[in-house]
């Protein structure tokens, strides 16, 4: 990846030739280089341990070691990880930070914080739902095989079959995790069971599980991937036969066991939605907000920020309503935007293909404008896909899958086209900018391609930074002259409004004891979104406490830092350089991002 020369100059200015510790001892540039190299070697060694322990991470990185295995999903792994975190923290406590260069010091701070959080969060290890409608293992394991496990040889095909067999043990560990959570007072609310049972049954529907129907999602994936191999007829038949046996003897029993457990647990579930129902739920939720936003904002403060932003955006929407000449109030305008057929593609295969084609055009148009806004661009390509049928009913509206770090797999923008009324044309620009370019693809692919940071930082994920950038990326094109259609600009505001409502509803559910229906009603009354989207969003809040607050809190902070820098630098402010500062250190907490921006401003002034 190409980084602009200015930014390297900026980094070099930060790497001082000598340093002084608290005792007044100074270090030469050679000593700083040596100490920094030693710590970075340690970081790399520890990261490789993480890779070695995770066959799934290896696959995500494009590696084919341990290709036929799954990760360890047992509860014992939590304890092993805790002890490892404590050992790493003890090592870092002995590091002389005064002898580190600035980039290595940032790595030290990030590693130290991650370890402290991991140790502190151990007490909340059972405060989540491993099987839920958003990202549960029941859907993630087959999705991993379909999207990540490439078959380029007979060996790869056999590794796929090995993973099919391994699903049985993995599911046993996951069911044990569910039992432990129930013992700790953590059971999903009732609605989660209908969603996850339906998705689980979908995995084991179709051939070879049932006759007289099309192939199951996994069988279809395996056979289609075999097509690109040069195999004899006998080799192909044998591999397909082995895959069918693995599906019937291992995958089907695994999912039947999960279905039986979920059906039994469903009888004990209630409609209570918020984290407040957990033991020490208030403390857990405060901790979750801290982790997701990397701020000290309380639930009440976040709730008030949301209410304020909703009111502001409603005001901007009023102006667009007047611009297009709509006569009626804002709620009536919302209904017009929800129901007028001009804003939607047909709910057909032709309509879905038209949507995907237009999404690709939006991304390609934005690509041409990137040099005006960014000095640094990723080498990895991006593709647009529809969410697979087996999980589209319960999956989110859109999401991004990062490219393989070795370049063997592009980044992917997934659009969920299950309900075309939930994917209006006027939101297409903002959605593509958020998930694709200049959003998550720019941010994540650039981080993976950096050669100036340790590997662990390329895979770090601070939601306020990552999702804050994604939402900020919906605004950048507006400032660059895009969204010329007022309805499309309304769509941009609708997306920002959606994230602002999240601040209100997430805190409402988990702190103020709102019901699921109260959350749905708030979205329905304050946004132009389809009812199905409102339901999905509230159900996402419920199973992922605090996560949805990261977007707007992160966006607001990035904008604040940018405008502070612009005010201090005046004509010397350069938007592309600012974006370099934000993007070329990988994912960082918001307070450390502020330090990076302030240092850049200071350097520019001198």
Automatic annotation (TrEMBL):
Native source species: Christiangramia oceanisediminis
Coiled coil segments of this chain: 75-102, 219-246
Protein's recorded name: DUF885 domain-containing protein
Keywords: Coiled coil
PANTHER family: DUF885 DOMAIN-CONTAINING PROTEIN, GLR0591 PROTEIN
Domain of life, per lineage: Bacteria
